[in-house]
Amino acid sequence: MSTLCPRYKFSSILRSLSSLSHLAQARLLVFHHPIYTVKQESLKTLANYLVKRCEPLTLAFHMNYCSIMLMNCWKCETHLPRRTFFCDKCNTLQPVDYKLDHFEVMGIERTFDIDADLLAKNFKKLQIQFHPDKFSLKSQKEHQMAVEHSTVINSAYRCLQQPVERALYLLDLAGKPLHEGQVDMDPDFLMKIMEINEELAKADDRDTVQAIGRFNQKILDELLREADVAFSVNDTETARRVVAKIKYYNNIYEKVRNYEREHGILD
């Protein structure tokens, strides 16, 4: 059953009337994604409604996985919407679209505060759908495409699953990548980090290490909340400063985890 993709926001609709006018005039097309199927007819209905009700406003409809640009199936040459994974006519797997970002690949909203359960659920679905073993009896080309799809899916999941990697990736997407040494850190902050590292280096028992871990996690959680707020309002500069701090505390977190693994005290 075709449903309207749930990952659009009304705020993103109110931007450019030109995009919407093209959408409203487009012929009926069906857009496919392993998780969502979207009918252009539904988009046209929404577009026409918005034009009538919001005529003074500039409108645009931005949706992940939806585009009226066409491509051809590599096997039967049927016209397909871009970001289509399987051909409507011959059901052949299509090449990886490397223009998709990790959020689009995983079928979730581009935000720092992701729905972790949805990410995991979609990952499992995509893993099953594109597992190379399912294409072992297909052509060598299709099997290789399945391998490439699986690689992209695994890479996207690993990145989005981890808060620090997700934050760094969002900064990359915003055109504000965070590289080592780009953000000047306050000397007092660096002193605190050094003191925590020294305490951890001297720790030789479970209670001390876990106490440091709890203290560090409390600060890390607060910084992650600050990062979420900054990303939610597109305050990239604040996000960069906060993420720079997060990297330091995350490094301590990893040291605590490694110590616990090495000494067999990991809960």
TrEMBL record:
Highest taxon listed in the record's lineage: Eukaryota
Pfam families attached to this UniProt entry: DnaJ (PF00226), HSCB_C (PF07743)
Keywords: Chaperone
A single GO molecular function term of this UniProt record: ATPase activator activity
Matches recorded under InterPro entries: DnaJ_domain, HscB, HscB_C_sf, HscB_oligo_C, J_dom_sf
GO CC terms: mitochondrion
Domain J as annotated: residue spans: 101-173
Record PROSITE patterns: DNAJ_2
UniProt family annotation: Belongs to the HscB family.
Name used for this protein in its record: J domain-containing protein
Organism for this UniProt entry: Cherax quadricarinatus
